[in-house]
Write a structure and sequence with these properties.
Elements: E1 8-12, H1 13-20, H2 29-38, E2 62-66, E3 69-73, E4 76-78, H3 85-90, E5 98-108, E6 119-123, E7 127-133, E8 139-146, H4 156-164, H5 171-176, E9 184-190, E10 199-200, E11 203-205, H6 208-211, H7 220-237, H8 241-269, H9 276-288, H10 291-299
Parallel strand pairs: 4-11
Antiparallel strand pairs: 1-6, 2-3, 5-8, 5-9, 6-7, 7-8, 10-11
C-alpha cells in the first residue's frame, strides 16, 4: 500500500482477519440498538424518561423518580454516558470527564464504496483516519485530530477534504460518498481519573459512565458490552445482588481501566504526535516490527473470554 510522507498504516482488516480466523463485521450503532431493544419484552423499555437522581436511603432497594411515578428496583444500572448524572451523585468529589486534546469527525457514507479491506487505520501528523465496512457496502469513517476544545468548522466535510486531500485511497472515495450534513463532530473527553469502584450499594456503573476512554483502540463500546455480559452473569450466578456487584466490580474495573490507559497511550504515541522526528521514529518502528507483532498488540485488548454461566 502506498502512503504519503509522514503517514503510516497501523492496521488493516486483512491482517486482523488472518490473526482472528474470522472476518470483521461492521454494524451501525442504530442497528445494534434496534437488535438489543427487540430482544427485550415489549413492555420493558420506557422511552424518553429522564432520571436525574435516585434515592438509595433504603439499603434493600433503590427508588427512581420518573415524572410523577416512583419505581422501586432491586438494582439500578447507571449506563448514562460520559456525563453521567448518577456518577456525579455517587462520586461528588470526582473531577469528572476531561478533554483529551483530540476531536473526532465521523460519518457513514451515503452509498457503497469500493474498499480493499473491511477495516483500515492510518496515523499521520497529529491525525488519524480509519474506516470499517458494513455488510451493505457502505462504511463508517472517522478522523481524529489534535485540536483545542470547542473548535468547529462551517463546512466539516470540506475541512476533511482539505486535511486529507493527499492521503491514500480509499480516503478520498469515503469522503466523496458522504453527505455534508451526515458528518458528526465531537470533542473527545475521557475519565482520566479512574473510579475507585463501579458499584455503590445497589447501583452499578457501566460503559462510559464507569470508564469513558479515548477511541484509539476502538474499545469504548466493546468494553460496555463486556460490562453488560459480566454484570448479567454475576447476577445470574451469585446468591445476592450485593455479592454479584462485588464480583462485577472485581472483574471489570481492572480490565476496563487497563484498556483505558492503553487507549490513552496509543493516542499519545500514535495519532497525537506532531514532531517530525518523533513521527519518523514511530513510522520506522511500525515498519520494522513483524506484522504479527503489530496485530497482536492491537488484538491483545480485544481478546476476552465471557464468563461462564454455571
Amino acid at each position: 500500500m502506498t502512503v504519503a510522507r509522514d503517514l503510516d498504516k497501523v492496521a488493516d482488516g486483512a491482517a486482523l482477519e488472518r490473526e482472528l480466523g474470522t472476518s470483521i463485521v461492521g454494524i451501525p450503532r442504530a442497528a445494534l440498538h434496534q437488535l438489543l431493544c427487540e430482544a427485550l419484552p415489549p413492555e420493558s423499555p420506557v422511552i424518553a424518561a429522564e432520571v436525574a437522581s435516585v434515592d438509595r436511603s433504603d439499603p434493600a432497594r433503590v427508588r427512581i423518580p420518573i415524572g410523577d411515578t416512583v419505581l422501586d428496583a432491586d438494582l439500578v444500572v447507571a449506563a448514562d454516558g460520559i456525563n453521567s448524572r448518577l456518577r456525579t451523585q455517587l462520586f461528588p468529589d470526582h473531577p469528572g470527564p476531561s478533554y483529551s486534546g483530540s476531536t473526532v469527525l465521523r460519518a457513514i457514507t451515503e452509498r457503497p464504496v469500493d474498499l480493499r479491506t473491511e477495516f483500515e487505520l492510518t496515523w499521520g501528523q497529529g491525525a488519524e483516519f480509519g474506516h470499517i465496512a458494513f455488510t451493505d457496502g457502505r462504511a463508517e469513517w472517522h478522523a481524529v485530530l489534535n485540536s483545542s476544545a470547542d473548535v468547529r468548522y462551517p463546512d466539516p466535510l470540506a475541512e476533511m477534504r482539505r486535511r486529507f486531500d493527499d492521503w491514500h485511497d480509499p480516503i478520498p472515495a469515503l469522503l466523496d460518498a458522504t453527505r455534508p450534513e451526515a458528518v458528526l463532530h465531537h470533542d473527545i473527553n475521557e475519565l482520566a481519573t479512574p473510579l475507585s469502584t463501579y458499584a455503590v450499594g445497589r447501583i452499578a456503573l457501566l460503559g462510559d459512565a464507569a470508564h469513558a476512554m479515548t477511541p484509539n483502540l476502538g474499545q469504548g463500546a466493546c468494553q460496555a458490552l463486556e460490562d453488560a455480559v459480566t454484570l448479567a452473569a454475576s447476577l445470574a450466578t451469585e446468591p445476592t445482588v450485593e455479592v454479584a456487584l462485588i464480583r462485577y466490580d472485581t472483574e471489570r474495573r481492572p480490565r476496563s481501566q487497563s484498556v483505558a490507559r492503553a487507549a490513552r497511550q496509543a493516542g499519545r504515541m500514535g495519532q497525537q504526535l506532531t514532531h517530525p522526528l518523533a513521527i519518523a521514529l514511530r513510522n520506522t518502528a511500525l515498519r520494522l516490527a513483524p506484522s504479527r507483532a503489530t496485530v497482536g498488540a492491537i488484538l491483545r485488548h480485544a481478546d476476552w473470554t465471557p464468563p461462564q454461566l454455571s
